[in-house]
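Record copied across here:
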Amino acid sequence: MDHIPSISARILLLQIRHRALDEKISELAANPYQNQLLIQRLKKEKLRIKDDIELLKDDLIPDLDA
């Protein structure tokens, strides 16, 4: 359980990055015709970060089979 604070800290950093991407996407959406490719890339990155957060949260929950 020594690595739990590092996992929690990583989750927090990923959540901050996820929120920042959400804000950036919202800003760019105001002019979608100029930045469509960038918006798509940011959305994909946001989804990857969300998946990483979920995987890390799963690591924090102990296995019930153990």
Remarks:
- The helical segments are 4-28, 36-60.
- The mean pLDDT is 88.
